[in-house]
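Reopening this one. Same input as before:
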Amino acid sequence: MHCTDPRRFNLLVTARLLLASLAAITLCACSGFQSSAPAVDGDRQLLTENPYLHDAQRIPQQAQAAMALAHQSYMQKDFAAAESQLVQITDTWPKLSGAWLNLGIVQQSDEKYADAEQSLRQAITANDNNIFAWNRLAAMLRDRGRFEDAEACYNAAIKRWPDYRDAHRNLGILYDLYLQQPERALQHYQAAQDADPEQDKLLNAWIVELGRRL
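Same output, byte for byte:
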């Protein structure tokens, strides 16, 4: 067990809590973006592709236009209008996983947590490989104090895409700050760092600080 500067430790914990509370606010047809192109670092093995983006379904033009309107309403914080517009989309295209994810994001922003959970689970039902929906659902469950359910959803996202750095990082935060399992936290912080073509300096600081505590 190593000692560490309490002030530095508190700053790092605060950074993790702030990051844990942040959520994507951009609504789009794919409902989030992370490069699906494999990355290589020297002699490292190629990273796997994002299964959701790799096999993305074609979005009808009408749905794209409707999604753009919902996005505009959301950015203006008119959550009622955005929700209504997205409900119309899901009614018309019920198998469009991204629309369900966006609906869940809007409902969560409007503090309609039960509705948001239902919409996020519907996004997963429509496309089990929607790792963004798994990750978003996990974060919401964590914030609601349902840590075991959140852990299961993060692991589900990682099972479907082992190189999903956001899920690894968020699961590391869950283990580190909420479940008090530093060994597992360090494992997932390192996995997140390994999956990032560009080394994250803040994440690296977490890894160093956590290693000192073990």
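So the earlier flakiness isn't reproducible anymore. For the record, Residues 6-21 form the longest helix (16 residues).
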